[in-house]
What we know:
Elements: E1 2-7, H1 15-29, E2 33-38, E3 55-58, H2 71-96, E4 100-103, E5 120-124, H3 131-134, H4 141-158, E6 163-166, E7 181-183, E8 202-206, H5 215-225, E9 233-237, H6 243-252, E10 259-263, H7 268-273, E11 277-280, H8 289-296, E12 301-304, H9 310-313, E13 320-323, H10 328-340, H11 342-356, H12 361-376
Amino acid sequence: MKIVYCISAMFKSGGIERVIANKVNYLVNHGYEACIITTDQAGRPDFFPIDERVERVDLGLNYDQFDELSPWKRYWKTYQLRSQHKARLEAELKRLHADITVSVWRQEASFLPDLKDGSRKILELHSAKATAELMHPAGSKLRRFIGRLRVAQQERVAARYDRFVILTHEEKPLWKGFSNLSVIPNALPFSPQKRADVSAKHLIAVGRMEYQKNFPELLQIWSRVAPDFPEWQLHLYGSGWMLDGLKRQAKELGIASQVSFEGAVSDMETAYASSSVYLMTSHYEGLPMVLLEAQSVGLPAVSYMCPSGPRDIITDGKDGFLVPLYDQETFAERLRTLMRDEELRRRMGQAAEVASHRYDLDVIMPQWLSLFNELVK
């Protein structure tokens, strides 16, 4: 069986790129043929290792050449390139004799079901359903309205696929009526060799310093708690356009001496293992891999119940705490509870590590193989 994945490029360090790399490597190691078709690779090296047995095709379209244009010009140029994309992709799929073609909702998502190449088509959604709306602040009413229109358009696209795969059971009711719906989460990207002993007076949060992650609110929460725990430090890992503002905010809140901005690092396993509690205050997620990674090294977590993911990952009171979205007071109190009690951190961390095995690659990939076999039989 030959499975083809469509994505813009594999030189980026994003979560979807890592997920696809892990999937295709697993497939070729288990007797399947795998191919990645890109539009914008342009000869750039892959960020994540990909087995040499994985076939590679780049269509040479380079949508990213339009990134610096105004939104309307970018939309028009992209639209003009779409017919070329459709023709080249269909020709390659016919040449490859693909059995399954998978879109991760890039440029091909809107037209892939129309291609007459004989393969069964799967669409993956790697975000919450309402992301197009939630990615804008609540005060941006026009942008949120446009976002809701995009969500409605996404529904029309998803309905046309042989199978539509989302990441969380939490989101399943939101796609009621979709007979082609399946839930398969992403797998853990690594098998950790280290375990957190949760005795360190370190808290950790990881992510891009952008609106989605809501780090300003995390600093506000930490300012409520930090004065009572002067020996504790909050370590923030990641980079982004909000970084300078977050540093200023930490100073204004009087907590700069208890906040460490660590930047982006390659060895996140060590960072998790040297911490005692993971914190997440995101406005929205898909299936937050950072939460899974923290669990896998035995970290208890305190997380907002944002859409979507935390409810699937954390069992409240057993391996972490779930907090209603934007309830800073409860978040701070749950954090205090864990910081005061090392034995509770240890017990919850052990439960978190056990729970994380639900997302092992050898647990998740057989679900995909079962789906592939069901579609082609």
